[in-house]
Amino acid sequence: MTKIAIIDYGFGNIKSVLNALNFCNADAVVINEPSKLAQYGAAILPGVGAFAPAADFLQKKGFVGAISDFVKSGKMLYGICLGFQLFFTNSFENGQYDGLNLIEGEVKKFDFNDRSLKIPHMGWNSVQWTDNPYSKLMFDGIKNGENFYFVHSYYPVLKDEKIAAGWTDYGVDFCSCIAYKNIWGSQFHIEKSGDIGLKVLKNFINVSEADK
Amino acid sequence: MLSIRIIPCLDVAGGRVVKGVNFINLRDAGDPVEVAKRYNQEGADEIVFLDITATHEARNTTVDIVRKTAEQVFIPLTVGGGIKTLGDIRNLLNAGADKVSLNSIAVKEPQIIKEASDIFGRQCVVVAIDAKKTCGNKWSVFVHGGRIDTGIDVVEWAKKAVSLGAGEILLTSMDRDGTKDGYDIELLKIVSSSAAVPIIASGGAGEYKHFAEACINGASAVLAASLFHYNLMSIADLKAYLKKQNIKTR
Q1: What is the model's pLDDT at position B155?
Q2: Domains and CATH numbers, chain B
Q3: Sorting pLDDT into bands at 50, 70 and 90, what band is A21?
């Protein structure tokens, strides 16, 4: 069984992610040492809160290089919420900050004239998945347009839209998840989206197993 | 498009659900984990635990039930009632709560809203406001379970809470709470139009149409307690009704 690392860098819903992995009978361990990452077959980068301190902490702890090496080795990585946003080149949350640059793109704030569109975008919204071959793996067994749980004020803009795994409409049509080779991630919380969210997590676990 | 959220609220004390829950075939209707699981199966979009434990010592039991619930129920969980410090907030979040709801303490020490949102992110900071109409189109903020009138204007307080870092407002009409006469729509409209964050409408739901009224008048989520606990309405039926009214549900 593939051992899955949950990367704890101090910004996360670590417990919820661990609970969900345990519920799916995965072999999951929380790690906070970058040097240990390479021992695992797959990893999850969770995260809630602001981009800048999280990116800064990843850098200081030495996770930036470790995560980059991990991805280059072909192992499966899943980013959730802020963890997903950290995949991109940079973010404009309270300034401009560098992300992990695993995926080219930037993270921008929702900006609406329509006052009925509240920020944060909080609650269940539907995800229209794409026909990218990886999104089929990600959403295997799930019907298109299913609802997932979101809480965020920022969203990514991809340089290459082809790697999007799904799109969600909230004032703008934004890329709510990606699946590109071994790099997967979602703005929505798979660990808080009921049975459907757990199914995406199981799909990730299964692909990690197959890749071993 | 975002769905409206249906949120059952459970009063817990000493680790038990204290308001009657009339679930048929439920092994232990007083067990918060069992009740949360059932609500999850019924389609609840989120669950709120309101801790009404009288003593501070007994509050550890709430952390316990949050931990047990989060191990088995994978939808957002908000916990409120009696939170006094950042340490209380940290304990609940570490146990698996996704959000905490601050009420009296937020009025007494508004800085806690800013500190909590700076440390944990505003997505997990809910400010609960107990509102009572004073005159005309004015509502006053009440604290300590609705016993003390602070004299603070609800709209002003909501704006201030948002500027300090509240990510959501749980707005309870004390005038309507328990009446089953419907949510206070005027209150909801005025707060919703002045606060840019999502508003959870609470207090007064009795019929299907009350939920629809709240949804079209600025609520992002609708909360009810006894209606669901006493099996007067099922979440699944409510969602079917809202769907017919062209209100998006999950």
Answers
A1: 98
A2: 5-244 (3.20.20.70)
A3: very high
Class for the domain spanning A3-211: alpha beta
Residue B116: closest CA among chain A residues belongs to which residue?
A49
- The residue in chain B having the minimum alpha-carbon distance to the alpha carbon of residue A12 is B120
Residues from chain A contacting residue B45 (CB–CB below 8 Å): 123-124
pLDDT tens, A1-11? 899 999 998 77
Residue A21 in tokens: 């992995």
- A147 — contact with chain B (CB < 8 Å)? yes
Residue B229: predicted pLDDT = 86
Which pLDDT value is given to residue A177? 98
In this structure, are residues A175 and A3 in contact, taking their beta carbons and an 8 Å threshold? no
* Rounded-to-integer distance, Cα B36 and Cα B176, Å: 25
Which of A48, A125, A170 has the CB atom closest to B123's CB atom?
A: A48
Average pLDDT across chain A, whole number: 94
Dihedral, B57, B59, B65, B70 alpha carbons, nearest 10: -130
Residue of A43, A48, A108, A125 lying closest to A83 (CA atoms): A48
Tell me what pLDDT residue A46 has.
Answer: 93
The reply to whether residue B120 touches residue A126, judged by beta carbons under 8 angstroms, is no
Residue A63 CA to residue A123 CA, distance in Å, equals 31
Distance from CA of A11 to the nearest CA of B (A): 8
Q: What is the ipTM of this complex?
A: 0.92
pLDDT tens-digit readout, A173-186: 999 999 999 999 99
Which of B31, B45, B98, B130 is labelled catalytic?
A: B130
| B177 catalytically annotated | no
Residues of A in contact with B168 (CB under 8 A): 120, 122
Structure tokens at A154: 């920022």
